[in-house]
Write a structure and sequence with these properties.
- By secondary structure, the chain is mainly α.
- The protein has two domains: about 10-80, Orthogonal Bundle (Arc Repressor Mutant, subunit A), CATH 1.10.10; about 85-235, Orthogonal Bundle (Tetracycline Repressor, domain 2).
- The chain has helices at about 30-40, 50-55, 60-65, 70-80, 95-110, 125-140, 145-175, 180-200, 205-210, 220-235.
- α7 (about 145-175) packs antiparallel against α10.
């Protein structure tokens, strides 16, 4: 197919447009912005080479001259939204700085609900991803650990945020698909759970619910999960 490489390559090491001809009519930034807009509005499944080419007013084969593979398009998208991070001057308190980045990540993923599904180390070589990693390591300068361990810390925090947000998004999507209200659904499930716990078959669960009947403060759970992750590295 036109524009496709015969061997593996990194999209960022590739010219903006392969082949001869007139000056490119579109930039990677144009293509990425269009794909992000489609994914935000219609979901990641709506992002196809044909769809993005149509949105840009070009043929599908022409788009392959700019982006050889759909996976490369995904990489452009992840890089594009990664530009939304703010990198304030590190405070010297590495825990506070990393927590601030984690909160930004959570907000970013909610703005772009398709993002958790595309989180992969494969996309860690893009310009904005590298800038993010460099900033993370700068924030971690006060932490006396090898760089390899610091990279593990960044990966662990990213994993916590991604998993948490993916669950939030899945819950919200399920709630929107229900033929009744979320409150009705919750009431039925709580009633069922209460009956099961009261049966005596689950004494530890019963003790747990007796200790804290809820409701669960999801914001506090998110913060605790992050802080415990950070403290695990601080103890090394």
């Amino acid at each position: 197919m036109a524009g496709r490489a015969a061997e593996p390559e990194v999209i960022w090491a590739r010219p903006e447009r392969a082949g001869r001809g007139p000056r490119p009519a579109h930039s990677r930034a144009d293509i990425a912005a269009t794909a992000v807009r489609v994914a935000d509005a219609e979901g990641i499944d709506a992002v196809s080479m044909r769809k993005i080419a149509g949105e840009l007013g070009m043929g599908t084969m022409s788009l392959y001259n700019y982006v050889p593979r759909k996976e490369d398009l995904y990489e452009l998208m992840v890089d594009a939204v990664s530009a939304e991070y703010a990198f304030p001057e590190p405070s010297g308190d590495w825990r506070a700085d990393v927590l601030g980045l984690a909160r930004q990540s959570r907000e970013l993923m909610h703005r772009h609900p398709w993002l958790p599904g595309l989180m992969s180390p494969v996309y860690g070589f893009s310009p904005n991803a590298l800038a993010y990693l460099e900033y993370c390591l700068t924030c971690l300068d006060p932490l006396d650990l090898p760089y390899g361990t610091k990279m593990e810390l960044v990966a662990a925090v990213t994993s916590v945020v991604t998993t948490y947000v993916a669950n939030e998004i899945a819950t919200a999507e399920r709630t929107r698909s229900l033929p009744w209200s979320a409150e009705q659904e919750q009431a039925v499930r709580i009633a069922y759970l209460g009956g099961q716990v009261a049966s005596g078959r689950y004494p530890r669960l019963a003790a747990s619910f007796a200790e804290d009947a809820g409701p669960i403060d999801l914001e506090a759970v998110f913060e605790r999960a992050l802080r415990r992750t950070l403290e695990g590295f601080a103890a090394e």
